[in-house]
Amino acid sequence: MSLKAIHVSEVPSLDHFPENPSLLCSYRKANNKFVVVGHRGHGMNMTQSPDLRFSALKENSILSFNAASKFSLDFIEFDVQVTRDGCPVIFHDDFIYSEEQGVVYERRVTDVCLSEFLSYGPQRDTGKTGKPLLRKSKEGKILKWSVESDDPLCTLQEAFEKVEKPNLGFNIELKLDDNLFYSSDHLSRLLLPILQVVSDIGKDRPIIFSSFHPDAALLVRKLQTTYPVFFLTNGGTEMYYDTRRNSLEEAIKLCLEGGLQGIVSEVKGVFRNPAAVNKIKESKLSLMTYGKLNNVAEAVYMQHLMGIEGVIVDHVEEITEAVREMMKPSNRDADEPKPNFSERELSFLLKLIPELIQH
């Protein structure tokens, strides 16, 4: 993958790029499988959840990535931002929270330099003590970020160097703040350091880029053509000022106009609008989903029936095992495993699901 530092107005037209087949479609055909992706590695952290699985391992860490790699995952997903001094780091939240002498303070990830970013939480140098790492809950509470097995914050380069399984794919989410406006030049400055790391040390590892930010997804597609780019969407479950984010139909339109290869939707968005699945397939786009329902084996099974190509999950061990059982060949056709639902039963379920999801 070749890169150069350019003004965004100099980015070449998509007309100059060859069409690439859908990575997931090719992957599924080659491996005859349903794709499972580990969310932030072995699963996200939820500070107030009674489910201890959400506090087992520090999310978005080398420890979490390598723990996830022990299972039959195809990819791990993680969030990448760029520090003030141009280093791509792996962190989900827009802000880091800490405290000093009892006073809580926040620092925007993109406003700190690499050395400060790495100074929060546990340190690789056992002789050092990191600054306290806190987290803001959805309810606005600032809480101690407690996990059973902690690990230092890390960079994108470290992920490539320290994830032990060389064929484990990376789904790199380009993380941007929903509350900020990004000019094209600003986006270019944020994306190029990420692409440079991937270009330098990505080697043969399978890679997918994804983003909730429409212009970031479009720009990363223009800046490189080696790796597929997916558009992340809530699928209409939440509304935004940018209408391109507000439905699966808008997501399809964005992908087709911008040459993106696929969509990653909140699973509820797909269940509420199952007719969109065929539209996406007819558009020759890949479709994956994310969301809490993907930690329920029955919901994952239903998506397999619908023709969805893969799921991003937190409960890595349980869902990889469920998918393994799901994909076992049936007695009817050992070469092509298929669930035992008739077309009539599947049609009924697809009509019923949107009603169930509304309640």
How would you characterize the overall build of this protein?
One of its GO terms (biological process) is glycerol metabolic process. This is glycerophosphodiester phosphodiesterase. There is one protein chain. The protein is α/β, with parallel strands linked by helices and 359 residues long. The chain has 12 helices and 14 strands. The strands form 3 sheets. Strands 1-2-9-10-11-12-13-14 form an 8-stranded parallel beta barrel, surrounded by 7 helices. Helix 4 runs parallel beside helix 5 and helix 5 packs across helix 6. The protein is globular, with a radius of gyration of 20 Å. The N terminus is likely disordered.
Show the helix and strand layout:
Elements: H1 23-31, E1 35-39, H2 62-68, E2 75-82, E3 88-90, E4 95-100, E5 103-108, H3 114-118, E6 134-136, E7 142-144, E8 154-155, H4 156-162, E9 169-174, H5 184-201, E10 207-211, H6 214-223, E11 229-233, H7 248-258, E12 262-266, H8 267-272, H9 275-282, E13 286-290, H10 297-306, E14 310-313, H11 316-326, H12 343-357
Parallel strand pairs: 1-2, 1-14, 2-9, 9-10, 10-11, 11-12, 12-13, 13-14
Antiparallel strand pairs: 2-3, 3-8, 4-5, 6-7
Helix pairs in contact: 4-5, 5-6
